[in-house]
Amino acid sequence: MNTVSRFPVPALADLPEDIRARIVAVHDKAGFVPNVFLAWAHRPDEFRAFFAYHDALLEKAGGLTKAEREMIVVATSALNHCHYCVIAHGAILRIRAKQPLLADQIAVNYLSADLTPRQRVMLDFAVKVAERSHEVSDEDLAALRGHGMTDDEIWDIGAIAALFALSNRMANLMALRPNDEFYTMGRAAK
Amino acid sequence: MNTVSRFPVPALADLPEDIRARIVAVHDKAGFVPNVFLAWAHRPDEFRAFFAYHDALLEKAGGLTKAEREMIVVATSALNHCHYCVIAHGAILRIRAKQPLLADQIAVNYLSADLTPRQRVMLDFAVKVAERSHEVSDEDLAALRGHGMTDDEIWDIGAIAALFALSNRMANLMALRPNDEFYTMGRAAK
Amino acid sequence: MNTVSRFPVPALADLPEDIRARIVAVHDKAGFVPNVFLAWAHRPDEFRAFFAYHDALLEKAGGLTKAEREMIVVATSALNHCHYCVIAHGAILRIRAKQPLLADQIAVNYLSADLTPRQRVMLDFAVKVAERSHEVSDEDLAALRGHGMTDDEIWDIGAIAALFALSNRMANLMALRPNDEFYTMGRAAK
Amino acid sequence: MNTVSRFPVPALADLPEDIRARIVAVHDKAGFVPNVFLAWAHRPDEFRAFFAYHDALLEKAGGLTKAEREMIVVATSALNHCHYCVIAHGAILRIRAKQPLLADQIAVNYLSADLTPRQRVMLDFAVKVAERSHEVSDEDLAALRGHGMTDDEIWDIGAIAALFALSNRMANLMALRPNDEFYTMGRAAK
Amino acid sequence: MNTVSRFPVPALADLPEDIRARIVAVHDKAGFVPNVFLAWAHRPDEFRAFFAYHDALLEKAGGLTKAEREMIVVATSALNHCHYCVIAHGAILRIRAKQPLLADQIAVNYLSADLTPRQRVMLDFAVKVAERSHEVSDEDLAALRGHGMTDDEIWDIGAIAALFALSNRMANLMALRPNDEFYTMGRAAK
Amino acid sequence: MNTVSRFPVPALADLPEDIRARIVAVHDKAGFVPNVFLAWAHRPDEFRAFFAYHDALLEKAGGLTKAEREMIVVATSALNHCHYCVIAHGAILRIRAKQPLLADQIAVNYLSADLTPRQRVMLDFAVKVAERSHEVSDEDLAALRGHGMTDDEIWDIGAIAALFALSNRMANLMALRPNDEFYTMGRAAK
Known about the structure:
Six copies of one chain form a homohexamer. With about 190 residues, chain A is an all-alpha fold.
């Protein structure tokens, strides 16, 4: 029951050098290796593409804050019932937002979470992209601009929701198990 | 109404060399530049990650045929009402499968399309990953293996459905317009 | 797999004279006999009632154009995943509208099709009748009148959506197969 | 609030002779004119087609009993929230089945109604045709045959569900009001 | 098929005195014992809690009328397909509202029932609480106040919808059968 | 934003003696007063009925364990997006089950949680009662008995799901805010 993935998980020694280096770097920073790195390494080319995409959107400077980017991940992953993404990115959100309650609030019902009006508008749009993107209209973009969002921010909101549409489905396909460490990270009050 | 994308589309001359080279190569092969390349080039890093992911799954040798991979794209993109993906990948499917009717059949209702039993099982699983991946179970994988699918093929089915969960949402976010050429490609009987 | 219907299809020679005459007339005009005529002739009284209803709404002069009437058929049939109706009426729409791309656009997502504002309002209402007619309100009719629709046009929009609610279910019940000819009709640019 | 329809209702004297004759005959038999006749007469050709279709399926001898045919109408009309059809055909069902409770039971939840196993199978299939006809499969028909249904009965079940898919949408479009008489007809125990 | 509940129904003689007294009182008033009392008495503590809750909300004086409270029960129970609650409370509504048609109208589609504007607003909110309470917002409450509802009335609307969310599920769990008497009560015109 | 409820919250001194005593007892045991007690005390009779119902089902000895009862609360409250119930009962579940990860797993997707086969069957049934109780059948109960469930346990599963159908709707109506204490309770490994 406690295996990391439904698919084979390669040994670190068997991985291509660039992937092993990334995993070692993550371990050195976090103190453990999040299971997503080990499980996705089953397919090195897909690993490289996924994390390149991830870094381009989640580690990007400017525009949305890093905490806001994680809010999008948690809100949409909760709607997709993605065990790994809600638990792991909930932890990252707690740390980045320095609000220990926010991740759980968003995971249950972002409509009742402690959000600023801008964050609420952001998550409304992210959820629309996640659940019924074919209804996204020019009027939606005009409304977001009316709330002060730039076109680059609008793309980022939609693109993060889209990337985790992929990520949630892959994690559910793998039955990817979150590391126990994530459940308690960042829970102490700031 | 006939613009390619809701977001800025860069001029070819302004693109990084690797992206321009890819676009030129596509043009030389297809005789035109599919709009997805121009529109996604608005974000070079995301362009690179997306097409690397795409090539790893759609151009892969062995296991699923290339036509089967396109069937997954068309079936799941139709459920997401993705204008670009259904029209463009419908054309590619017609060409790869050498069955001029199949793409339209799958786009309307894959349950009544001219599929082999193996293809039907493949699309049932792809649609489950696309629509309710959190219900994917060990029993689903056992059933697929019972139909002769290898674990590598099972991953590919799920991963293609997951990649186009992303792609459909991005195309809908951009209001990405398919090139007129796609509508008629591959319609002549084999 | 390539049979026309799940139910018996009568030979032309065995049909009542009026039904045979209708089928001969269709053949002379189109160059082939659309399968819907042969399959529905299994029940002559229902054949007569259905085509009388069909002609009253689809061949009617004045008000909505014939192309607009077919747009309603394609948009609602796509939501009901009706293989026969989307393929056959898509062909008729291409011919009547003299817009070779419009039928496929509407079949995938009418919200992103090349529609006039009047056509968009028309399809929004048709889809509401098709999917949640119990929510149709006096306010909906007032809004349509505000867009210049007459009460006769409003009835026609709703009645065509209602007739194809029947037709889609019958075609799906029969597993009615569209003739191969429909897939390519009207695809040449005007 | 108490008008019969959202659209014009013609005076009896203004109707074509055949339609007036039908309405007079109904009045003589029932003691009142059900509103559906008056409202649909707004469009004489559609009136003729609808009632020809209706009679072909609801008044047909052999196969399904007339009460069973009405059960299909009530079960599917309830799911479409069709005020007129549930109230009017509920009354007809009470009279035809000589079971005063059955119509209300089916209207609320056919799964808990006093049905024979054959009737339950019949309504399961009718509801599938009403709600997701694109999923009807050869296996469904084989199962119905296994419960002793003939192919003619299977067509009838599906066709009645399809006809009331039309009828429910038209009644909801018109806001067709059931006559007060229907609410109490057939409620006395047999 | 005609049993009262899927679970054991205690004999009157075996019940605790307070519960028996309540049942005797109901019998003396109504002339029969509604099955809900007998079936729920299988669990005396839950019986006491349920009817205490019920009386606090349905028998309350002031604010919403007793008929309005029953409208909420019928509208939300119909959406939950609760056989017992729609039939039994439909009868009570007929009696309390002195409108013999209203209960059936609300059960089929409250949107087309003979409601005052205030009652329509009341049922819109009750249905929102019943079906998607997590979307209830401060704006909803402000709108209700704008229609003249007090905060005590707003609580009552939501609380009755919430209580019958429980009651509908319990009745469906038990397969609780309504007494035959309910079907005809209150049908005579006032 | 940080208020406890949308409705007035009475001062402890203003409460009836029995309610105040209950609240004092809870405070003495837990070290704080969960907001549900304060907010529901706005309506003393409903407070008494709710907590009587709650205690009858959640504090009951025998049959389901107390941890299993809390699993039902968390699984169904998550589907109803009830902020208060998921956070507060998640804490109670962590403490009662002595499994610090289980509550978060069930809240995201009980299908991928660390459950025994018996617990999985229990939650499948609880979710069916919560979401589509009108489909509960005799076959469902037979299957539960086949997994060793007694009829008393089956009632309890359904009744807890039903009680929290009420509780979730009330908490969402009130916008009931969970106490900060709940988020971290029981997270230390056993």
